[in-house]
């Protein structure tokens, strides 16, 4: 649902008021999300306090506490804001190009502020099952939907079988990104993505 | 170096005294490592305080502070203790069986207390480059050595080429473990490991 939905459906004053309130909420949420990313970049996760976020966002601390109960919760809301546009929903008509496009868009995401927030969040998930479920239902599900759409279209075009699209092969490229980004720190660039797609994923998907 | 090395090399009283002190240090380190894992399991990373660890280990808080400056530092030392035995250095004479053995031993590791400690640590690494370097030089390097040994022996036996052993294919199985363990939470068991080894890694390594 976008901010304009309420207005498009109804012209009553009540609805307009609600829509304005929603727009204000939305502006404030974005200011807070930007503040979280700023504080995280400057102070790290240990320095991410409700006080610091309130100060950077120019809102009262009570405003923050009313909406978010913990800093992990706050981080998750940042990912919700950051996750609304990317990853690219590439539809080039070709599986190879779609895979490369989504993976490169993911690299951009991981290298940016929401990648940093995700990394901090993954550390917090282990002690918080509710947060883990929220992460899986939010940012992770959005990413997965973009990825699955690419594979499903290839199935529709007859490029690969449904079994291939649902196999472990479909995890290999995101898995290498995960390992290098979170654990080993090895380089992640266009040539790595293209090598994985061309020499690993495509041959296996087509022969599955 | 093991605790007995000093005694084996020299019979002087001074060396014996040093060795005893070292043995005491080692016993205390293990008690502290066990305490860290216990507190982490009970309270989570947020509840992992120097106070709680000192209490659980039955040592003075000053003892902890003298050796470790932060809880991330403490976590890393737990991984050092925990990482001394596994992963299995499998040498079955067959690449397929070696790969499966090391991966299954890694699954055991990830499912246990040092897996939990590693996950918390990965969250802390992002804000601490020194800790990140220590993680790479310690636990990660030990794991990598076990894995590389398996591939190098296959090269020596002529099963695969050096190019294959050094390629991105060598990362695929640990990458899927990483993705499922840290991010998606999908099941990780013997059948997943065997499918990845038999249908993904071995065919690609042999054809690289």
UniProtKB/TrEMBL annotation, chains A, B:
Taxonomic superkingdom: Bacteria
SUPFAM superfamilies from the UniProt entry: Homeodomain-like (SSF46689), Tetracyclin repressor-like, C-terminal domain (SSF48498)
Key word Transcription regulation present: yes
Pfam family, one: TetR_C_11
DNA-binding region: 49-68
GO terms assigned for molecular function: DNA-binding transcription factor activity; transcription cis-regulatory region binding
The keyword Transcription belongs to this UniProt entry's keyword annotation: yes
Domain HTH tetR-type: 26-86
Entry keyword set: DNA-binding, Transcription, Transcription regulation
PANTHER family documented for this protein: HTH-TYPE TRANSCRIPTIONAL REGULATOR RUTR, TETR-FAMILY TRANSCRIPTIONAL REGULATOR
Record's protein name: TetR/AcrR family transcriptional regulator
Species this chain originates from: Geodermatophilus sabuli
């Amino acid at each position: 649902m976008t901010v304009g939905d309420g207005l498009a459906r109804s012209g009553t004053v009540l609805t307009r008021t609600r829509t304005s309130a929603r727009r204000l909420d939305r502006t404030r949420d974005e200011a807070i999300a930007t503040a979280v990313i700023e504080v995280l970049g400057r102070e790290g996760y240990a320095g991410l306090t409700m006080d610091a976020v309130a100060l950077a966002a120019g809102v009262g601390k009570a405003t923050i506490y009313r909406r978010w109960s913990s800093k992990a919760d706050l981080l998750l809301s940042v990912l919700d804001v950051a996750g609304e546009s990317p990853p690219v929903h590439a539809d080039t008509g070709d599986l190879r190009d779609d895979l490369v496009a989504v993976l490169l868009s993911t690299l951009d995401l991981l290298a940016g502020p929401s990648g940093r927030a995700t990394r901090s969040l993954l550390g917090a998930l282990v002690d918080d099952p509710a947060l883990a479920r929220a992460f899986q239902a939010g940012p992770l599900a959005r990413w997965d939907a973009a990825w699955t759409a690419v594979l499903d279209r290839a199935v529709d075009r007859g490029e690969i079988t449904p079994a291939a699209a649902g196999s472990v092969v479909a995890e290999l490229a995101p898995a290498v990104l995960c390992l290098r980004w979170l654990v080993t720190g090895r380089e992640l660039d266009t040539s790595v993505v293209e090598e994985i797609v061309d020499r690993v994923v495509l041959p296996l998907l087509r022969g599955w």
